[in-house]
Specification:
It contains 13 helices and 13 strands. Helices cover 40% and strands 14% of the residues. With 370 residues, it is an alpha/beta fold. The protein has 2 domains: 4-245, Type I PLP-dependent aspartate aminotransferase-like (Major domain) (Aspartate Aminotransferase, domain 2); 247-369, Aspartate Aminotransferase, domain 1. It starts with a helix and ends with a helix.
Length: 370
Amino acid sequence: MVDLKRQYARIQEKIDDAVLGVIRSSRYIKGPVVETFEEELGDYLGSGHVISCANGTDALQIAVMALGLEPGDEIIVPAFTYVATAEIIGLLRLKPIMVDVDPGNFNITPDAIVQAITDNTKAIVPVHLFGQTAPMQEIMQIAEEHGLFVIEDNAQAIGADYHFADGHVAKAGTIAHIGTTSFFPSKNLGCYGDGGAIFTNNQDLADKMKMIANHGQGKQYYHDVIGVNSRLDAMQAAILRVKLPYLDSYCAARRSAADYYDRAFADIKQLKIPTRAIYSSHVFHQYTLQVPPADRDSLRTYLKEKSVPSMVYYPVPLYKQKAYALYWGNSEKILPVTDELCRSVLSLPIHTEMNAGLQDYIIEAVKSYF
């Protein structure tokens, strides 16, 4: 699905020098490399504050912890997403309210948010799924009208641009009160282990999240809030410093590969190619087709026989997972779009090292099935 070995080979000398530099410095935790990466990422994003942490799930947890919510408070999330988005809400004894998504771009919709708001609603977590943003302008307007916090789960769309109606552009993850991301190796900006980061333009939130990520201390051995231990280690920061200047070219390569797929699959009536929202660029963390449910699993088996990998993100609706049944009680809740997507989505390989020969083989395999 992702060719990290060839990506590394293109920048091997720079990566090796960066890693050896950390080893020779013996500064493995925090230190100047981490601080410099945070500054450089902030400059790239146009974010006033970047707080690095151990992984993308921690980034979400620290962000929610900073809001000062009470047990039972509700946070609206999409039902079609990875479990981490809701997992940290339940972990903090809050209530994830899962809502349906847009059938074209897979992201949470303003209408679904409005319908889910209650007196207990305190926040919204839109997920920028598969590489393009949710409709953030409308979401922020709803949040302002109802006095809600917004946290962007930007684990899959770092580098994407959001275009506002008045013409100005902002990077995904920098529009809401807080943005979060993951540096898992397969992400568009990935390290060689685990890593994550949090973004905000709010000084008070930044100060609080820095403390939370560091055992709740602003000064060593003085703990002002309950915190966690979540750090991006210096070696991963050094790797990310090398890769950050390549992020735009990585996104462009993925976009080019997606365009190639689109042209090849446009005439296959059984397939629905990814929708591109008019308000967001698409950085194609995943290239996800919609396939008739009757064909999806058999197509995947057929591709495997031809040594073509594929993935189903996500096969079970989040709101139907056993771990989250307690939030619905005996409810017969149905989210038709999410249910249909879980039966029909199929992601094909897409990464920075794609070439026409590789894609032609994948495309021919898909076409030959139909």
